[in-house]
């Protein structure tokens, strides 16, 4: 195996050539020397010789010579790396995904065994195995989703002159061999294995975090368990979302392929002949069973409907006399008071020891709500000084009695007026 630095450097120098060869590797498992020269000449620099580029790729182990042949093939690691960067993945096998999901059960058992036996090494091994499985499953799900999206796009963009069975052949195979098994595995009920196994793994990791906290384990160890638990929770959500996205992508194409089979094509052709030539010339009536229905269907109204219609026919509107317009009753709750005159009267009466008693004596006709509103507004006026009394007092109004700390109103003696604090109840 060549040094990683050399391989990465050659990928950087000849990325366009490697990317094009990776795309061609879908159709050609091996490349002849003539094909390699054509690709290199298409993407290399003008100052660089094609033989030099080919030698560099071979020396960096990007291109490998096939035994007993003069052809070359791309390194498998390079193919996976380039396809991963360009989001052009090959669809994996549902059996591989199922095997990795089943392996979660063994890793969860290791975590529980290490937790029950206070074996930190076994606990760490099981948790790391869970983390590695979660990473691989997540990577495979993302790659498979990209591959399914690409298969759907290729099927949609294929030549429409081709029969739909040939255009959508890969779509039908992928749905039957990958999407349906994956949906069965992602089922959250008794038939599924993905959701229940991840749920058990998540519960085991949460239990491990709690027990390690009680035992006083290291913070790094508890943090590692918590991070793996977060990965399991995210995978449980992402797995069902990706499975639903794949099914939503392929299901319309699958239904379209089923609707446009050979039988539907013959029927569509016959219907087009009928539309163009008419029923007599477009459809061969010989040998077709022709019949007519002699049964006569009668519909009559029921008695309930007849009675209802009779009532409608004999309906006579009843005249309703509306009352004449008149003056409405005068509301007793509306009270008018000349507030400007009230303030002048209060200024002439200063000092006032209790503002509430003064308002009650001079304006007894006012409702309680209006009287309380005036009280709150007058104690905050800046034109006089309002002082709160030290003792509470109770005053009976028209309908209620209020308990409050009375305000004393007097003329200003200081240029900065003092505002009273409202403690009326």
What features would you describe in this structure?
- This is DUF3375 domain-containing protein.
- With 425 residues, the chain is mainly alpha-helical.
- The chain folds into three domains: 4-85, Arc Repressor Mutant, subunit A; 94-264; 339-410, no CATH class.
- The chain has 17 helices and six strands.
- The longest helix is centred in the middle third of the chain and has 41 residues, at 219-259.
- The chain is extended, with a radius of gyration of 45 Å.
- Residues 414-425 have low confidence and may be disordered.
Task: Produce a short descriptive summary.
This protein is mostly helical and 425 residues long.
Let me know the average pLDDT: 77
Q: Quick one: overall form?
A: extended
* Major β-sheet annotation: 2 strands, antiparallel
Kindly name the structural category.
Answer: mainly alpha
Q: List the secondary-structure elements in sequence, H or E.
A: HHHHEEHHHHHHHHHHHHHEEEE
How far apart are the first and last residues' alpha carbons, in Å? 91 Å
Topology:
Layout: H1 4-13, H2 15-24, H3 33-43, H4 50-59, E1 63-65, E2 72-74, H5 76-85, H6 94-116, H7 120-156, H8 164-167, H9 169-186, H10 194-215, H11 219-259, H12 262-277, H13 279-282, H14 303-313, H15 339-349, H16 355-362, H17 368-378, E3 385-388, E4 393-396, E5 401-404, E6 407-410
Antiparallel strand pairs: 1-2, 3-6, 4-5
Helix pairs in contact: 2-3, 3-4, 6-7, 6-10, 7-11, 9-11, 10-11
Keywords:
two-stranded antiparallel ribbon; two-stranded antiparallel sheet; Arc Repressor Mutant, subunit A; mainly alpha; extended; 17 helices; 60% helix; 6 strands; 3 domains; 425 residues
């Amino acid at each position: 195996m060549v040094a990683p630095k050399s391989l990465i450097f050659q990928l950087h120098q000849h990325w366009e050539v490697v990317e094009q060869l990776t795309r061609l590797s879908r159709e050609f498992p091996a490349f002849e020397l003539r094909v390699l020269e054509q690709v290199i000449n298409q993407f290399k620099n003008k100052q660089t010789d094609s033989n030099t580029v080919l030698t560099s790729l071979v020396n960096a182990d990007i291109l490998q010579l096939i035994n007993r042949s003069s052809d070359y093939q791309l390194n498998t690691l390079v193919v996976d790396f380039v396809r991963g960067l360009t989001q052009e993945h090959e669809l994996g096998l549902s059996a591989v995904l199922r095997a990795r999901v089943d392996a979660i059960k063994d890793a969860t058992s290791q975590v529980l065994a290490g937790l029950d036996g206070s074996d930190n090494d076994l606990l760490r091994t099981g948790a790391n195995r869970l983390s590695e499985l979660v990473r691989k499953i997540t990577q495979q799900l993302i790659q498979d989703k990209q591959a399914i999206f690409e298969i759907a796009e290729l099927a949609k963009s294929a030549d429409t002159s081709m029969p739909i069975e040939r255009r959508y052949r890969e779509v039908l195979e992928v749905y039957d061999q990958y999407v349906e098994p994956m949906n069965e595995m992602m089922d959250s009920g008794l038939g599924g294995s993905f959701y229940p196994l991840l749920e058990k793994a998540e519960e085991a990791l949460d239990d491990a975090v709690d027990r390690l906290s009680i035992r006083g384990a290291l913070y790094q160890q508890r943090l590692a368990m918590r991070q793996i638990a977060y990965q399991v929770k995210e995978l449980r959500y992402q797995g069902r979302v990706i499975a639903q996205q794949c099914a939503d992508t392929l299901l319309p194409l699958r239904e379209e392929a089923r609707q446009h089979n050979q039988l539907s094509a013959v029927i569509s052709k016959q219907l087009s002949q009928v539309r163009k030539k008419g029923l007599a010339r477009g459809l061969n009536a010989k040998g077709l069973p022709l019949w007519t229905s002699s049964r006569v269907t009668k519909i009559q109204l029921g008695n309930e409907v007849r009675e209802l219609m009779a009532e409608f026919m004999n309906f006579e509107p009843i005249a309703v006399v509306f009352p004449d317009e008149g003056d409405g009753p005068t509301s007793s709750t509306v009270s008018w008071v000349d507030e400007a005159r009230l303030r002048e009267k209060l200024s002439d009466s200063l000092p006032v020891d209790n503002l509430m008693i003064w308002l009650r004596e001079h304006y007894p006709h006012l409702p309680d709500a209006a009287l309380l509103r005036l009280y709150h507004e007058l104690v905050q006026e800046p034109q006089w000084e309002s002082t709160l009394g030290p003792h509470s007092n109770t005053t009976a109004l028209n309908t209620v009695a209020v308990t409050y700390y009375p305000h004393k109103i007097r003329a200003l003696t200081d240029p900065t007026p003092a505002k009273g604090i409202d403690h009326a109840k």
